[in-house]
Each structure stands twice: as C-alpha cells, then as structure tokens.
Amino acid sequence: MMRSGRLFRDGATTFALLAILALLALKMNNCPELVQLGGFYVIDGDTLSSNGERFRLKGIDAPEYRQQCRRDGVDWACGAKARETLVAIINGGTPECRGQDRDRYGRLLVTCVLGDIDVNARMVREGMAVAYGRYVAEERIARQKKAGVWAGDFARPSDYRREERMQRSENGDLIKGLVDYLGRLAGWSAE
User: Is 68 exposed, middle or buried (0-12, 13-18, 19+ CB in 10 A)?
Assistant: First the structure.
C-alpha cells in the first residue's frame, strides 16, 4: 500500500514540475512586439537596418541585390531595382515597423506601414517582391499587370540563392562548401 502511495506522489510531483517548466518556457517564448520608427537604411528589397539591428520584411521575398532578371530579351538589374523601390517607399515618410518573431539569421520579421500603406504589400503589388506566405492577392495583381519581375523571366529569389550557393560550392573547394553548408544549417550565414 505504501509503495503505491509513494509512486503516486512521485508521479504527481514529476507532472507538477514538468507543468511549471512548460509554463516557464511558454512565458519566455512570449516576446513583446517590437516597434521601430524611421531611421532605416535599406540593405536590399526586403531587408532594412537601423542602429545595428536588421529587419526582414515579413511575408515577402525580393530579388537579391546582384540578381538579374530578363525582360524583352534583355537582362536588367531587378535586385538593384527592388532596393531602389524600397528606398523610394521608405523615404516617403516615417515608416513604422512592428514584429516579434525572428528568422533563423536573427533578423526581426516585421510588417512596415507608412501612414495607411502596408510597405510589404506594396513591394509585392509593384512586382518588386514575391509573396512568401502572405500577400498572395497582391502577387496576383502584380502578375496580371505584368509589374516588375512579372514583366519577363526571373528566378524566384529562393531559387537564385540556392543556385548561387551551388555555384560557390562547385567553384570553391570541397572544404569551403562543407563549411558553408554547416554554417547555413547552424544559422551562421546570411542567405
């Protein structure tokens, strides 16, 4: 009889400790929303910087800065144009960017607004970024209008980054390719 009572008590204590640990983990994961007003430097078509912190526009993926697209049989610098577009939008006032989650590179994932304009949505609507989990309706509008990258042929930014990594691995030595791969797995390198 005594053994079953002790077993029950140990089980209840273990359960209580696990419940407390789960609540603590939940509380630690519940980060407050961070808000940044203006003062941004545009790195590329979907990344901002301010006071040493990097911000990634949530729900979009813009061409990489060096990425080329093709329109009417001619290459054009769609990555540089995406950056120019974001600079023009951001310089139109004092944007407010909000977010609480971070990507695997430690960048704060933000949605930015400028007055009543959703900056992330506008980048997609102008064809300077593709939808990445959000803004699907805006991408449909850009496709129909053949805006930005949708006016011709382009590699999706994620495909472009993958190709760049593969070329670096093939052109470099095997050790560097392995180190780059392990760095990406650990989240040490920017994509």
Answer: middle
Percent of the chain with pLDDT strictly greater than 90 = 64
In a 3-state reduction of DSSP, which class is residue 16? Answer: helix
Give the CB-side neighbour count of residue 136, counting CA atoms within 13 A.
Answer: 2
The Cα 44–Cα 143 span in angstroms is: 22
pLDDT above 80 (res 182): no
DSSP strand E in 21-180: where?
34-37, 41-44, 47-50, 53-57, 60-61, 69-71, 74-76, 96-99, 108-114, 117-118, 130-131
Radius of gyration of the chain (CA): 23
Question: Rounded distance, CA 178 to CA 172, Å?
Answer: 10
Tokens of 160: 């472009």
Q: Residues 35, 77: contact at Cβ < 8 Å?
A: no
Q: pLDDT, tens digit, for every residue of 52-107?
A: 999 999 999 999 999 999 999 999 999 999 999 999 999 999 999 999 999 999 99
109 and 98 Cβ atoms separated by less than 8 Å: no
